[in-house]
Amino acid sequence: MEIKKVKDMGQASFLKVNNLKLQREVEWEGKSAYWIFEDDGRADELIEAYINGEAIGNLKDFSEAQRTLKQMLYN
User: Fold this and answer.
1) Angle, alpha carbons 30-31-32 (nearest 5°)
2) Residue 10, Cβ neighbours under 10 Å: how many?
């Protein structure tokens, strides 16, 4: 299984909503934070859909995913 490092919170939230497994710790490189996902082969396709405005999903779930990712930054 590959890993996918994501710096953008929106992209990371979309991956989380789409059930890619998120590691518990944020990886820091200087002042930049990266969320680390186990990539089952869908990560690049999901990120592309998000960037191109083709992402489909539940907005409440997306908002909850963002809240979780923000909490990870401050723990």
Assistant:
1) 95
2) 16
The 10 Å CB-count burial string (b at 16+, else e) for 25-34 is ebeeeeeebb
Query: What is the C-alpha separation between 1 and 10, in angstroms, rounded?
Result: 23
57-72 confidence digits (pLDDT tens): 999 999 999 999 999 9
Q: Are 28 and 50 in contact (CB under 8 A)?
A: no
Domain ranges of the chain: 2-74
Amino acid found at 75: N
Whether residue 24 has pLDDT greater than 90:
no
